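User: Predict the structure for this protein chain, please.
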Amino acid sequence: MCPVHSSPPFNAPAARRLRAALGMAPGHVAYGLRAQYGLLVAPETVMAWERGELSPTSAELTALAGVLWCSPGELYAEPVTLREHRLSRGLDPEDLARRIGLEANSYQKMEDTGRWKGNERQSAALASVLGLTLAQFVTATGKQDELAEMLRSAVTTRWQAYAKPLAKLLPVPKAHLERVLEVLHNEYQSLMVATLSWGGGGGTAGTGDAGREFLADIVNRFWSVAGGAR
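Assistant: Here is the predicted structure, written as structure tokens:
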């Protein structure tokens, strides 16, 4: 059974803002859609788009971008999935697959399932072509849980053992990952030493809550230390 794709996420406030900046009324937009693209869209429909009550189809969104003198990507809400990032760049699956060195069918399967299985080179190419930050790459490729688990293991045991697996997971130079892991490991270990030295005293660290909180927030701390990931 073929997967059913939802429409791209539409950024209603952006559409309203762009129209207003051009000094256009909803009726002007509707006229432009009809005159330039042959789309019969009523002014009331344009207003419904801008209120978030309806979403334009892919064809309507592309035409709307033309009428509003903007790129289609400016009319998308923040993309999350691989498909949404691809659409925001105006790429079809075959084109993206070719540019990152994958067979079209293989890429499409990964996009449909939300599970990225490309190698290090393909991952780096995917991040480059789609302009993904590290955080966006991890979310779009469905690797959040795997990243969190690896990071928790790295800071609680020997971080050196996780540098290579993480380099395969993320399109980041291994040397940079090693520096980040060492910082995180030292932070966690220092926190635990402080906890032990305070014994059974009161306070968050004294109860061991600080260590648990650090591990719970390990991914956010990773982005912060890695620098510019968000």
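The CA atoms of residues 21 and 193 lie 57 Å apart.
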